[in-house]
Amino acid sequence: MTSSAGLHLKTFILIFFMILFGPLGNVSLSKGMKTIGAISLHQPADLLNVFLQILQSPFVWLGIVLQLMFFVCYMVVLSWADYSFVQPAGSIAYAVVALQAHFILKEPISPLRWAGVCVICLGVLIVGHTSPRTTEQK
Amino acid sequence: MAWETVLLALIVFAGTSGELCVTRAMKIIGEVHDFRPSSLLRVMFRAIQVPWMWLGVALMAVAFFSLLGALSMENVSFVVPVTALSYAAGALGGQVFLGERVSRRRWLGVLLVCIGVTLVFLGRK
User: Fold this and answer.
1) What is the pLDDT along chain B (125 residues), one digit of tens a residue?
2) How far is B77 from chain A, CA to nearest CA, in Å?
3) Is-contact B100 A110, C-beta < 8 A?
4) What span, in angstroms and rounded, lies between the C-alpha atoms of B78 and B121?
5) Which of A81, B14, B40, B67 maximizes the CB count within 10 A of its CB?
């Protein structure tokens, strides 16, 4: 009984970190790329130039680390929890990224965009509530 | 605008094809039962010998740099919701390339995702 409650707590904590780190990673990548500015490629040398700028951006690296942390939480939680339980929980991430973009990056978000984000969350939730394996195993 | 659409399409299609390739590679390797570090290393060693894995990783790298490119010109609250279209591409690709059966319920979810992305596009200004 205690172990089942412990398992639940562990699962929820990891899912909480997942939906915190994943969107934060995107927000950080966005901040890094906004600092670099819109990419324009006029000649092949520009590609190398942009690549070097990306490698020097601390926010891009922070974003990559946060996404790795998200990925580790995701993998770890999948080692005991069902994919069909974890994946729908991840649908909240679409709302979280919009909230973080609004409050951390001060992005203006129109009501129509909020509505779109909510519909996407609902759609992803429904996609996740279907059987995770439909192919025959050998 | 046109350049940006190309980047968004690359995020969705290169990302999804990359995941499909990795899935195919992992199905060749077989289900992972043992999560001890030494066995996981062996799984990784087997993984790098499957060409599908390399193709998958290359496609996912293309998707990642396209994401960076798109984020350099658009807001993250626009780019990330649009990438949810990969659920549509994934359902289609899973059915066509991996022989997965996609239920009616799942198509309903995909339809909702598409409606949501349309709203996000319309709410751009």
Assistant:
1) 688 899 999 999 999 999 888 888 888 887 777 777 887 788 888 888 889 999 999 999 999 999 999 999 899 999 999 999 988 988 888 888 878 788 888 899 999 999 999 999 888 76
2) 5
3) no
4) 8
5) B67
d(CA B30, CA A138): 10
Note whether A116 contacts B106, CB cutoff 8 Å.
Answer: no
Among the listed residues B71, B84, B65, B62, the one whose alpha carbon sits nearest the alpha carbon of residue A28: B71
Q: Which amino acid is at A61?
A: W
Q: Do A123 and B112 touch (CB under 8 A)?
A: yes
pLDDT in tens, A15-47: 999 999 999 999 999 999 999 887 777 777 888
- Do the chains contact at B124 and A113, CB–CB below 8 Å? yes
Q: Which pLDDT does position A2 carry in this prediction?
A: 47
Give which of A28, A31, A39 to mutate to test B binding, by max B Cβ within 10 Å: A39
Beta-carbon separation of A37 and B69 below 8 A: no
CB A125 within 8 A of CB B109: yes
Q: Comparing C-alpha atoms, which of B73, B89, B58, B81 is closest to residue B7? A: B73
Question: Which of B26, B71, B83, B115 is most worth mutating to test chain A (most A CB atoms within 10 A of its CB)?
Answer: B71
Contact B115 A126 (CB under 8 A): no
Please give the residue of chain B at the shortest CA–CA distance from A125. B109
DSSP class per residue in A20-84: HHHHHHHHHHHHHHHHH-----SSHHHHHHHHHHHHT-HHHHHHHHHHHHHHHHHHHHHTTS-HH
